[in-house]
Design brief:
Layout (H helix, E strand, L loop, with lengths): L19 H10 L9 E3 L6 E3 L8 E4 L7 E5 L12 E5 L3 E11 L10 E8 L4 E11 L9 E8 L5 E2 L3 E7 L11 E5 L8 E4 L8 E4 L1 H4 L4 E2 L1 E6 L11 H7 L2
Parallel strand pairs: 2-9
Antiparallel strand pairs: 1-4, 3-16, 4-12, 5-11, 5-13, 6-9, 6-10, 6-12, 6-16, 7-8, 7-11, 12-15, 13-14
C-alpha cells in the first residue's frame, strides 16, 4: 500500500477536507512502485555525485554517463544464498584492476558497522564466473544521503590481473533476517548503458541466478559500479598494503 502522504505530486491536496475524488486521482496518476517488499528504491531524482578528491591508481571505467536518477537496494530475502543480492557490472580486459569503485547513497544515516564484500569475477559466457579477487567486510560509512551520492574507491593490495572480460560487484553483509536497506547502489536510468546484473535467490518470485536489475526495479541503463585499471605487471601509481586498505575503509 502506498502511504498517502508520499504520493508524488499530491501532498498539497491531501489536507483535512480533501475530497475522495481528488485522492483517487492522485493515487491513480502516481508513478508505479515495486510491489515486492524485498526491493527498495530511493525514488526518482537527480543524484549529485560527491567528489572525494582521492588520487587515482589507474584509469577509471564506469558504464553510466556520470548522472544518477535513482538508487536500488534489496532486503533480507535476497540474502538467503551466499551470492544472492549481489549487484554487478561488466568490463573489458586485459587489465589489472587496481581498485573497485562503488557509487552509493542512502535515505537514513544508520551509522557505521554494516559491511559489504567487493568482488572481481572472470567472465563465464556473459555472466560473473569464478571469483578472482575479493575485498571482504568493507564498511563504506559514511554514505551520502540521497540525492547526494558518495563514491567509495577500494584499492587492491596486490595485482588483480584479468586477461579477458570481467565483472565487478558488491553484496551487503546484512544477513537473511529482517533489516533495513542500509545503502543503495546508484542507478543511471538514461545513460549509454552497461550490464547491470543482480543475483536473484530462489523463493522470492523472480527467475533465479544472475538476471537484469530491471526485473525488480524497472528500466535502467547502468549501475554505479566501476573500477580503476592499469596494465598488468605495471608498477601501480599508488602503492598500498593490506593494512592500509583496512584502515582506510573501516
Amino acid at each position: 500500500m502506498i502511504p498517502v502522504d508520499r504520493v508524488l505530486g499530491c501532498r498539497p491536496y491531501l489536507r483535512r477536507g480533501a475530497t475522495l475524488l481528488l485522492l483517487g486521482h492522485c493515487i491513480l496518476t502516481a508513478p508505479p512502485v515495486p510491489a515486492d517488499d524485498q526491493v527498495a528504491q530511493t525514488g526518482p531524482g537527480s543524484g549529485v555525485l560527491i567528489d572525494t578528491g582521492r588520487e587515482a591508481c589507474g584509469t577509471l571505467g564506469m558504464n553510466g554517463d556520470g548522472s544518477y536518477e535513482n538508487g536500488f537496494g534489496v532486503r533480507h530475502g535476497f540474502f538467503s544464498t551466499d551470492i544472492g543480492g549481489t549487484f554487478a557490472e561488466c568490463f573489458t580486459g586485459p587489465a589489472n584492476v587496481c581498485a573497485v569503485v562503488f557509487d552509493l547513497t542512502t535515505v537514513f544515516d544508520f551509522g557505521p558497522g554494516q559491511t559489504f564484500d567487493a568482488t572481481v569475477w572472470d567472465d563465464a559466457n556473459g555472466l560473473p564466473g569464478q571469483v578472482v579477487c575479493i575485498l571482504p567486510e568493507i564498511d563504506p560509512y559514511p554514505v551520502a544521503l540521497w540525492p547526494s551520492v558518495s563514491r567509495h574507491t577500494l584499492t587492491f593490495p596486490v595485482e588483480c590481473c584479468m586477461t579477458g572480460n570481467f565483472w565487478v560487484g558488491h553484496r551487503g553483509n546484512w544477513g537473511n533476517v529482517f533489516t533495513p536497506v542500509y545503502w543503495y547502489v546508484a542507478a543511471d536510468l538514461d545513460g549509454f548503458g552497461g550490464c547491470k546484473l543482480l543475483n536473484y535467490p530462489p523463493g522470492i518470485g523472480y527467475p533465479t541466478g544472475w538476471q537484469d536489475v530491471s526485473l525488480a526495479f524497472g528500466p535502467a541503463a547502468a549501475l554505479g559500479i566501476g573500477c580503476e585499471t592499469t596494465v598488468c605487471g605495471a608498477t601501480p601509481i599508488e602503492p598500498s598494503s593490506w593494512g592500509r586498505v583496512k584502515s582506510l575503509y573501516q
